[in-house]
TrEMBL record:
Lineage top rank: taxon: Bacteria
InterPro entries given in the database record: TPR-like_helical_dom_sf
Organism (species): Pseudoalteromonas fuliginea
Gene3D superfamilies: Tetratricopeptide repeat domain
Protein name: Tetratricopeptide repeat protein
């Protein structure tokens, strides 16, 4: 690892040590979307400026809800947040499809799949995977 990478890791590690409350606590995560938003609202009040969750944090929370807590309805809230912030959010849009499928909401899943398939930056493999996913959703 290069010296600059070590310095960066040490710097970010020090910041995380100084501001541990910026991480989403496990209990807050389990409580769900509204608790996570309340966590960031508390941080904003504490530090005196608007602190928004990062897209990776919301994505991770959505994956946790979808995969580990098996709560697709709650996962949709996190993925929707990311999509509202960045409509081209590929991973969040792919996983919102999975959440809608788990809920049996075929039309919502197809809507997001069609948006993904209209992208011109997809690799051949991504396009094939999405096309297969769309075929499976159509069979629901």
């Amino acid at each position: 690892m290069q010296k600059l990478e070590w310095v960066s890791l040490l710097f970010f590690g020090a910041l995380r040590g100084l501001y541990p409350q910026w991480s989403i606590p496990y209990e807050t995560s389990v409580e769900g979307y509204e608790s996570v938003l309340a966590h960031f609202k508390k941080l904003s009040t504490l530090y005196g400026y608007q602190i928004e969750p990062k897209s990776w944090q919301m994505y991770d929370e959505g994956i946790g809800q979808l995969t580990y807590l098996e709560n697709p309805a709650e996962a949709i809230k996190y993925f929707s947040y990311n999509i509202s912030q960045e409509p081209s959010a590929y991973s969040s849009r792919v996983h919102i499809v999975d959440a809608f499928v788990k809920l049996g909401k075929k039309q919502e899943a197809l809507k997001h799949l069609n948006i993904l398939l209209r992208r011109d930056d997809l690799s051949d493999e991504e396009r094939q995977q999405l096309t297969e996913k769309k075929s499976n959703v159509n069979l629901m």
